[in-house]
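Re: How this chain folds, sequence and tokenised backbone to follow

Filed under: protein folding, tokenised backbone structure, sequence and structure records.

Contents: The amino acid chain and a row of whole-number tokens, matched residue for residue.

Body of memo: The sequence and its backbone structure tokens, given next.
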Amino acid sequence: MKIIKGSVTAPQDFLAAGVKSGIKKNGLDLALIISKIPALAAGVFTKNAIKAAPMVISERHLKNGKAQAIIVNSGNANCLTGKKGLDDAVEMAKAVAGAMWISSYNVLVASTGIIGKPFPIDKIKAAVPDLISQLSEAGELPAAKAIMTTDLSPKRIAVAVDIGGQTVKIGGIAKGSGMISPNMATMLCFLTTDADIELRALRSSLRDSVADSFNAITVDGDMSTNDTVFILANCLAGNSRIEYGTKGYKIFCEALSYVTAYLAKEIARDGEGATKFIEVEVKGARSKNDAGKVAREIANSNLVKTAMAGEDPNIGRIASAAGAAGVKFKESKLDISISGVKIVNSGNVAYQKRPKVKKLLKKGEIGISVDLHSGKESAKVWTCDLTERYIKINARYN
């Protein structure tokens, strides 16, 4: 596998575009991704009980496992907008479908931005002709920019992998910076591939890759109403069809997981107001679920995150968070390391190592490792520090 140029238009016969429709005061705010032919499609959505209108419509459109286009806006979430919001999401799909002479059921829709404001469907419909006219392979970057809200930079990647002697490509773009604690945050991700793959295998590979990537990040512990991940597969790579459980399936899953993990880490790095990227790894747990609980408790701890922001090796905050996860382990066996330096060994704190750790905390990347010595399972969660700037960004986000 190798990283290649581009993102969602790197696979064969995918085009994209991003334009300014006027939803946001400044910048691009409307994106479109299309396959030149109908594609297999799968999606994963937030588990928040409140679901934005475009998610409801897209879930309906995905039932047949096919799609050809994805239209996305930023600046307005189209959430808590009632029946009008649902109608607007349908109109959003129809605007693209009518211009492209395809069924509206083959158009997926997504939105991100402020919740509870009337949805500006007229601005979107007016911008669709311009959006379609700008479709190109180079349009992947404007598309990645158009889905951003408080993000500081676009998040994009593409890879190529050999499957049965044929080159298969996978590309993706994502957005997310705040309200990030997916349980598939405001996070969106759109993936494309030219792999010839059966629908069952596509759906399964997406679920598994999301579980170990977007469900393994947190910025602020808040789950969004709009979290969405879509993948389109137009099957043009010429490889033998990838079926569930085969060698080709395993290779495809590894490549897709690399793409989603990369994008997930980029979201964590770009956390609102963040100055440090933090990887929390929990080892020696009785089950993967136990390891994940402890890792997420540490990663979501405001006390841990502010300690990292202040470059303070306050080991008590990490230990306390680990103990609060509701997972059984013996304190006398607990090991904790920060950026490779063990500062708790078998439940005892090595105070003399604190100055060394304090220097390491000045770096932009920090590793927190916790070994429970209770089993063989492990889990990782990616997060960032919590700074005063996070408060300022969210206090004025309206």
The first helix runs from residue 53 to 61. The first strand starts at residue 2 and ends at 4.
